[in-house]
Amino acid sequence: MSIRAKLAWTFILLLIFGITAISSYSIVFIRNYLLSEGERQIINDTRWLAIAIQNLRSDEDFETNLNEIAYASGYRLAIYDEMGILYAEVPFHETARATQQLDSVLRDNFIRDGAMIVEDQADVDLLIAYALLQPLHNEAAYLKVTIHKERIYEPIKTIRWIIYTGMFISIGLVLLVSITFSRSITLPILQLEKAAREISDGNTTQSLNLERSDEIGTLAKSLNRMADRLRSDNIELKRLYQKQNQFFADITHEIRNPLHTIAGALEMLKMNTLDDAQREKYILTAERQTQRINRLFKDLVTLQRYDSDDQFIQVQSFDVLKIINIIVETLEPEAVEKGLSLITAGESCHVTADPDKIEQVLENLVTNAIKFTAEGSITINVHQEGGNAVVEVKDTGIGISGEHLDRLFDRFYRTDKARSRDKGGTGLGLSVVKSILEAHNSQIYVESEPGVGSRFWFSLPVAQ
Hints:
Distance between the termini: 72 Å
CATH superfamily of the domain at 3-157: PAS domain
Number of helices: 11
Radius of gyration: 56 Å
CATH architecture of the domain at 3-157: 2-Layer Sandwich
CATH topology of the domain at 3-157: Beta-Lactamase
Largest sheet: 5 strands, antiparallel
Low-confidence stretches: 417-424
CATH class of the domain at 3-157: Alpha Beta
């Protein structure tokens, strides 16, 4: 059964039961009220009937006058003498005659109470009132006033008809309102269900336009936000998927080239006609390509740890100038071989960072500077600005065009792919630099001019 049908039937049954219960209670309440009013009325009427009857004279017109009183009052009257013997009864019916003698206990109650007594027995369809008379002009000593309860309940027939008519009209209105109300409630729910199903099927362009200020409107807005979020996530996932495919393609390309070179060198080494100089040349070529592959995997491990390892950096206090001196000592032979000067500037400055990772940053920056500088110098400078130590690497190399600066730190991005591979680069050095500095809540900055040189710099917090 659908939600709409359940809601409709729930409202219908609840309201029908409610209307029926109220109607039944109303009829019972009105019936009891009429009976109570009937008792009060018969008591009042019995008082003036007693006065009228005890003033009737005992003559030939007694019964006629008594009939007229009974007719005018609408009651059945029975009169008893002082012995409790039936004296007169009007109107006279053979099938409904009064008792011939009053019960002695009842008569004693009359004498003791000196007031009227009303009998209302559930198993008797009569309402009876008694009165003690003063026999002035006739022998009447006791008055019995009787009326059928049906006469008291007569208005109930009309009231019942009104109530039942109103009840059926109300039920009809309830049916109409329940169906309309359940439809108005379930229609947006069905729209929400349809939208949720389409979103689950991948249709994230689905949007709900429900201008409502209730909970359903809030749910619709939440569903729209979820669809927007899924749509943006899908776009991001597609971008990451494309980037991942490009990443694996780049890795494959980066490994294939040195492997081909190594394979070629090994083939040449198999030849017996090679002299010692040529053999040494091919051995060095294979060794350099092996080191290139090793650097590639080292950079990949660093990037993978940055993406997944919460303990990627181990912060401590150290002198950054000492790290710079270590880098200069390590890379100076390579610079001297190309005729370059490695210059260290600045003074001792203690920072809070991971010394091994900062050493890797400086090694990558200086190595790149050596590769892309044909003549001149490379300067490594450190100076303090406020609470930070600024470290910069400046060269007099070939420089970088402005269109490459935005993507310079992307993985496997090269400004000149052919020349970069010839120089043995992995295409990951600057990506590693950026990742390490981001882990330190820092950034790498660059400014460059083709033919003039490049300047890279970053900052680290000074140790307290």
